[in-house]
Amino acid sequence: QVELVESGGGLVQAGGSLRLSCAPSGSIFGITAMNWYRQAPGKQRELVAAINRDGYTNYADSVKGRFTISRDNAKNTVFLQMNSLKPEDTAVYYCRTLYMVAGIEHNYWGQGTQVTVSS
Question: Fewer CB atoms inside 10 A, N or C side of the chain?
Fold first, then answer.
C-alpha cells in the first residue's frame, strides 16, 4: 500500500511563505492528476490547486496569484508554494494523487499537514 507523505506545514506570520511537499512512499503508475485540498475547522474540504499529467494547472479563486502548484514527474512528487499567506489560509492541507488502472480511476490521500497563519 502506497502512502503519500506530506511535509512543509507550520506556523507563519501573515505575508509569509511556506512550501508544501507530497511524495509517495512507493511507485505509482498511470497518474492523471495531483491535487492539494484544505480543510479549515468547521468547514468542508475544498480544492486549492490541481495539476494534471500535461502540466495544466487550476486554482481556487481565493489563492490565485499567491499559490503555485508544481510537480516532479520523475519522483511523482507534488509541491505547493504558498506566498502572501493570510490568516484565512489556516487549515489542514491534504494532497491527493489520482491514477488509472485498467480504465478505473483510483486515488491516494496524504495524512494532512497543518498550516497556521497568524495575524
Answer: N
Asked if residue 109 lies in contact with residue 6, where contact means CB atoms within 8 angstroms, the answer is no
In this structure, the number of other CB atoms found within 10 A of the CB of residue 9 comes to: 19
Half-sphere exposure (Cβ direction) of 92: Cα atoms closer than 13 Å:
12
Going by C-alpha positions, the residue among 91, 97, 95, 90 that lies closest to residue 111 is: 95
**HEC assignment per residue over the chain:** CCCEEEECCEEEECCCCEEEEEEECCCCCCEEEEEEEEECCCCCCEEEEEEECCCCEEECCCCCCCEEEEEECCCCEEEEEECCCCHHHCEEEEEEEEEEECCEEEEEEECCEEEEEEC
Centroid of chain to Cα 4: 11
Position 94 pLDDT exceeds 90: yes
- pLDDT tens-digit profile of 25-69? 999 999 999 999 999 999 999 999 999 999 999 999 999 999 999
